[in-house]
Design a protein that fits this description.
This protein is α/β, with parallel strands linked by helices. It contains 9 helices and 8 strands. The structure holds zinc ion (ZN).
Length: 296
């Protein structure tokens, strides 16, 4: 059993962020842990604008001085939404295992419109996209699935591999056992797409690449130490060769998408997948909130 990690409670959040200024100070600290630098040219010798809190001036990239606030270059820029409201929505999204819908955010936050909540949640999801990707190592499980459509509850042996279904979207994922997960939406579930996903995300030095018996993975055998489970023969676990970990991730993702979001369009599916991936990969990170803010 994985040990439980304490994550910021609502009470702790309230104490940490009593005001918009507290949020701005927190953002500045996390954005520039070694000192403020110019978002435009990267210069570190910037001047504090005393009359305007959380504003600085850079004289390196402009003769008149380039003025910027703590929000410049972040997802919080150019909105009328208070930073504290952004922070509250982010906290809400991070502590909900299955995610929280824009409708829910809209009701809880009392925004003027649903569109505001939708805009915020999409921008936050975009900020949660993994920017520090490294190839997976150790024991890695790879599996593919369809989101939506008719076969969402089907097991691998009943999947119509490679066949396009109306209203269902192909997703492939790889997970390092006891480690991180990478999931990606595919335009089509083809052998080529699955193989190039594996080559891009999984190191050839893995001790084991575990998949189901889908033939697309078989030709990777020369490149990887590959083992596959025989789902069709009801042999799901043969020693270390199983895909239970990635199937656990699919289960959280699908329950979230079906239960919380009901219906997700193909256009936005990658953002939801990124959100679930972020939560999964930071499940043991007690400071997941700071990690999210650094990506914003
Ligand atoms: Zn500059």
């Amino acid at each position: 059993m994985a040990k439980r990690i304490h994550q910021m409670t609502i009470g702790e959040w309230e104490r940490a962020f009593p005001s918009d200024d507290a949020c701005k100070a927190y953002l500045a600290r996390n954005r520039w842990p070694t000192g403020v630098s110019c978002p435009r040219c990267g210069a570190v010798g910037v001047y504090v604008l005393k009359a305007r809190p959380f504003h600085w001036q850079c004289k390196e990239c402009s003769v008149h001085g380039y003025r910027f606030s703590v929000l410049v270059g972040t997802v919080f820029e150019n909105t009328n939404i208070k930073l504290r409201e952004w922070f509250r929505v982010i906290h809400r999204m991070l502590v909900s295992k299955k995610g929280v819908s824009a409708h829910q955010i809209y009701r809880e936050m009392g925004f003027g419109s649903y569109e505001t909540a939708l805009y915020m949640t999409h921008r936050i999801r975009a900020a949660l996209v993994d920017k520090n990707f490294r190839k997976l190592i150790g024991i890695v499980e790879v599996d593919e699935t369809f989101i939506g459509g008719d076969d969402r509850n089907c097991h691998a042996d009943k999947k119509l591999h490679g066949k396009w279904r109306q209203n269902s979207f192909a997703v492939v994922g790889a997970v390092e056992r006891n480690g991180s997960c990478v999931a990606r939406c595919l335009d089509r579930m083809t052998k080529e797409a699955l193989q190039s996903f594996v080559r891009e995300t999984v190191s050839t030095n893995v001790s084991l690449l575990a998949t189901d018996e889908y033939p697309a993975y078989r030709s990777l055998q020369g490149e990887y130490n590959h083992g596959h489970a025989h789902h069709a023969a009801n042999r799901y676990v043969v020693g270390a060769v199983h895909t239970n970990t990635i199937e656990g991730f699919w289960s959280i993702l699908k329950r979230g998408l079906m239960g919380t979001f009901h219906k997700v369009s193909r256009k936005y599916l990658p953002l939801y997948v990124a959100e679930f991936q972020f939560r999964y990969n930071n499940r043991l990170n007690a400071d997941i909130f700071a990690e999210a803010i650094r990506g914003c």
